[in-house]
Design goal:
The protein has four helices and no strands. The longest helix has 35 residues.
């Protein structure tokens, strides 16, 4: 069997690299789909879209185990705060820009 030239080896390696990248993306989408199915069963409508995004982004940024530990340490939400009525009459909504200034 004749030995491959460097150009042929490079072409083969690049083809394998493309196939691996496609496989990684396919697997990533499948995993994200499983996580999306989990979210469908959670009462996320109690959060604003921004709160939900910020919560997930912060959890991913600091790591799942750290985020879970920190959240478990928090006290349970009271019944009045779960229903959307707050003991504080001031609205948490601000009229400023929606992006973080930090």
């Amino acid at each position: 069997m004749p030995k491959k030239t460097d150009r042929e080896r490079l072409a083969d390696l690049e083809a394998r690299q493309r196939m691996m990248a496609e496989e990684v993306e396919k697997t990533r989408r499948a995993l994200r789909g499983k996580y999306a199915d989990i979210v469908a069963d959670l009462p996320v409508e109690d959060l604003t879209e921004r709160e939900f995004r910020d919560l997930l982004a912060a959890s991913i940024r600091c790591g799942g185990a750290v985020a879970v530990s920190a959240l478990r340490a928090l006290p349970e939400a009271s019944a009045s705060s779960k229903s959307g009525t707050s003991a504080n009459s001031k609205s948490s909504r601000r009229d400023g820009p929606a992006t973080s200034m930090a």
